[in-house]
Amino acid sequence: MEPSVFLEYASVTALWLMTISLFFPMYRLFRGPSLSDRVVALDQIAVIVVAMIICDVIYSRNDVLLDVVLIVSFLLAFGSMIIARYLYKQTTQDD
Amino acid sequence: MLLAAIKSLISFKSIRKLFYLLYLFLYFCYKIIESGWAVGWMILKGSRGESGGIVEYQTKVQKSWHLVILFNMLSMTPGSLSVDLSDNGSTIDVHLLNLNEEQQFIRVTQKIESLLMKAL
Amino acid sequence: MIEIIVGILVILSAVIVLIASIGIIRFRDLYARMHVVTKVSSFGLLLLLIAVNLLYRKVNVFIESILVFHVLIFLSPVSAHVIAKITRWLSQNSDDNAETNQQGKDNL
Q: What is the pLDDT of residue C16?
């Protein structure tokens, strides 16, 4: 088999595996007992989206998409901090 | 004159500091890979994550930014996640994934601490 | 030859991300799930970034992947710590009075 053809098949297989693994944190997002569990599940979903974009960089040979990876990983970090702040404010409002 | 300036810049002490900084970085990279592998293997063995608990750790570092670096590095070493810090900055509350490995955690953290105080 | 190594690395990192998602659904404790998100997923993304650098071998790709790696290493423990601290504080004074609320407000 040609090496470039193998690389295409490998990246498509990796994309399918990541699509399957997107369902498990989705279940945790719907069934989580508390709000913190849902935040952790959203973190995992963002990490999987970053990994899928890097797989697409390898599949389509287009390195412009790495900028998107940088922005999404910044949003992954700061979004959970903002949700934690909201969680704190919601509990202290009623006194 | 230029040679003397370069010699004073690259003294014995700064070379030793650079060496310890490099050693700390490589040790940290090794610990990241080892921790990812260990937790992944724990999932594959079918653990439900019920044997964890929160322990306290007394630190010896004084400067505040040393404390910040130690606090972030502690989250990346295998089986430990830093949760809280006391007000005077001497006690860190750490969540361990497996409470039986407390001695190993204390050994690794003391090694990182001594390397940090030597390097910076 | 280098493309075969890159393909093996990509499949390996996809399997590691799959293991991390299974851990999210299997673990019962919240702190244990945070361990999984911080460590195993970072390990998988590290392998993917190594694969991209092996494939392209260009300077701007290297610099950009170093940036992404540092964001992952230094900012994901911070966000995990914030969530863990809030959760612990909520579980501690869920049945307490307003005095501890005031103390927690000073701490944050």
A: 92
Given this model, what pLDDT does residue A93 score?
Answer: 67
Are C71 and A70 inside 8 Å of each other by CB? yes
The residue of C26, C35, C37, C50 whose CB has the most chain A CBs within 10 angstroms, and thus the best one to mutate to test that interface, is C37
Would the CB atoms of C3 and A3 count as touching at under 8 Å?
A: yes
- Domain map (residue ranges) of chain C: 2-107
Return d(Cα A18, Cα C41) in angstroms, integer.
12
* Contact indicator for A41, C25 with CB cutoff of 8 Å: no
Look at residue C106 in the predicted model and tell me its pLDDT.
47
Q: What does the pLDDT look like over B52-99, one tens digit per residue? A: 788 888 888 878 888 888 888 888 888 888 888 887 778 888 888 888
pLDDT given at position C18: 92
Tell me the shortest Cα–Cα distance from C107 to chain A, in angstroms. Answer: 12
Assess A40–C contact: CB distance below 8 Å, yes or no.
Answer: yes
Here the ipTM equals 0.86
Whether B78 contacts B31, CB under 8 Å? yes
- In chain A, which residues have pLDDT < 50? none
- B56: amino acid identity, one letter: E
Q: What percent of chain C is helix, strand and coil (3-state, nearest 5)?
A: 90, 0, 10
Rounded distance between C-alpha atoms, residue C23 and residue C19, angstroms: 6
Residues with pLDDT less than 70, chain C: 94-108
- Residue A51's nearest CA partner among B11, C46, B15, C74 is C46
* Cα-based distances in Å from B16 to A41, A47, B22, B67: 44, 38, 10, 22
Please report the pLDDT score of residue C96 as a whole number: 56
Tell me which chains share at least 3 CB pairs under 8 Å with chain A: C
- What is the Cα–Cα distance from C108 to C106, expressed in whole angstroms? 6
| Partner C contacted by A50 (CB < 8 A) | yes
C21 with A22: Cβ contact below 8 A: yes
CB contact under 8 A, A80 and C82: yes
